[in-house]
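[step 3/7] fold_predict: job queued, chain A
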Amino acid sequence: MDSPATASSSRSTTRRWQIAGAVTLVVALAFGGWGLWRVLAPVPDDLRTQFGDSQRRARHLQTEVDQLQQRVTTLSRSDQISREANRDLQGTLAERDEEIAGLRADVAFYERLVGSTSQRRGLTVHALRMQPQNDTAWHFTTTLTQNLNRGAVSTGQLTLTIEGTRAGRLEKLAWAELRQQPEAPGLGYSFKYFQQVEGDVFLPQGFAPVRVAVRLAPQQGAAIEQSFTWADATREIAPTTAAQ
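[step 4/7] structure written:
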């Protein structure tokens, strides 16, 4: 059985623990109440103002970003359109320059043909141009001129012959062979000053052309024949206008 002194000490210890627990509970309730007040208390006016200003600033910045992005898109599209228009303009200018060069060549040709100081010449082949169509077909354009008898009409027929090599041997293709039809008729011409006569010829496989001869058979007078090297005939020449 405990002594009175021991019982008194035990009661004193129990009372101290009760007091400590009560103090701890009071402190906990005080901190809890303070925290709850912080959560539920209304936001001060200055904080609400700052928050509202931040939101408005963010919306304003987003609007500016959207406007700048739209402007960049518009400028990019405008630049693309300008580049395309510039390319089209450059192409048009190049075509016009080529057309002007052709017209100047035509004027020079006319001056040489019918000018007061032009040299008088009878029927002649002014130019011959050969253009490939495929491996065997060629399109030819001949320019015939005459200014000896001004006002007189030159009429007749035109044929070609082509010289070359095949399998190491010289060969000459007549008009009928070039046209691939027996007794092929010549191409007619009729003009006062000049005319372009065009047609197609066909070369056999393995044939290497060297020279082209143009033969003119007028209704009156002797036949005229002029030769051109294949290199000259396939070189670009200045165009002339249609027959007159």
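[step 5/7] annotate
The mean pLDDT is 80.
The longest strand covers residues 154-166.
exit 0
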